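Ticket closed. Logging final result for Putative HD superfamily hydrolase.
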Amino acid sequence: MMHDDRSTQARQADILRAAAALAKSELEHEGSGHDWWHIHRVTELAKRIAAAEKADLFICELAALLHDLADEKLVDDPETGMKRTESWMLENGATAEEAAHVMEIISTLSFKGGAGKPMTTLEGKVVQDADRLDAIGAIGIARTFVYSGKKGRPMYDPNIPVRREMTPEEYRNGKDTAINHFHEKLLKLKDLLNTDSGLAIAEQRHAFMEEFLERFDREWNGTDGL
Ligand code: ADP
Ligand code: NI
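Final structure:
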């Protein structure tokens, strides 16, 4: 019915506005690469990919806006964070079905040192691709050096080997460098993308990272130029 369609749209627009305000206020001063601008970039990418893949725009945008609010690095207890996020959606007018779909997406999102559970819905695949795309390319490079700097880790140390396998604990707290993180995670992300549209964006971002790493290596060894 026309009337219902219009009120659904208005209800969803209100939720999206409130979710953006919530993410902005909670993550404004976050310093590990999950700040509001990460959320903003992921949300814009998710909308573009959702349109190309004909996924549900509302679910994709809402999940993108809320996806890092319960991240283990941001809250002491991710489970409480998850429950808060779900209650927030229900209190702000989401249907039980919408809230459950978004919760399914954001609980599956985190990478945590190994390949996580596969995403089961198209909307989950879209948001996961958008989040992974923000970890690669020029933005991915910048975020990685900011994160390493915040952790007091070196940008590179030839004596710290790249880890082929690691526990979640080692992934978070082991000896690491910014350059190693490319080999331990970021260069693997392209092959984990779910959608063709995401992959098309990832190809360019991946190539840029490879070029950066080759140049870094040449400059490190003093073999560039001349
Ligand atoms: P996700 O966004 O999947 O939760 P993380 O929280 O692990 O991923 O990391 C977010 C960003 O922080 C990464 O894209 C990366 O730039 C940076 N980062 C995470 N772990 C490291 C690390 N060990 N070394 C350098 N940068 C890291
Ligand atoms: Ni994220």
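Residues 33, 71, 73, 110-111, 131, 135, 140, 143-144, 147-148, 176, 178, 181 surround adenosine-5'-diphosphate (ligand 1) (CB under 6 Å). No further action required.
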